[in-house]
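A quick aside before the break. I want you to see a complete sequence-to-structure record at least once, exactly as it would be stored in a machine-readable document. Don't worry about memorizing anything.
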Amino acid sequence: MSKNTSQLNSKRKQVSQSASACGLPSHVDLSGDQSSVSYSEAEWRKRLTEEQYLVTREQGTERPFANPFHDNKAIGLYRCVACETPLFSSTDKFDSGSGWPSFDSPIDSRTLGETRDVSYGMVRVEVHCNVCGSHQGHVFPDGPAPTGTRYCINSAALRFESVESVELIVQLVKDWYQAQ
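That is the input. The structure line, written in tokens, reads:
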């Protein structure tokens, strides 16, 4: 294993461990069937742009390669656009060539739910934010090592928070988990 690969794996673990070291915030309950954050359709429409609403609330998909994060290489945190839950780190992002932001793992698997999706004549696994129920995209078993997974996520479902270092990503994640 090269020195760069070892350093990247160490940084990735740092971000994931920051989530697992903290309990979920008191306002987040992932134990039931209901999302912790819930709004009426009118409130969701007020909070989200038309495209964000289409993707997150109606399981839409944005166009490949025509979205802001598919080629974003900045260091930072990807949050759910609807509820601010930290979902992915730039340390887990890779170029899948699909035209959408792709990640090989979430920061904390508890924050993403999976549902069988048989739309468009395909069988896929849809992923959604477990905190607010917002559709994020799909997960596929064709990602890179070490996870072998590819989370293919819509940019419209994400808000990116650019930071200067992985340590600042860790701090943002810890801050969210410690929020009351």
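Two observations worth writing down. Strands lie at 76-80, 86-89, 93-94, 102-103, 112-117, 124-129, 135-140, 150-153, 158-162. The two ends are 41 Å apart (CA to CA). We'll return to this after the break.
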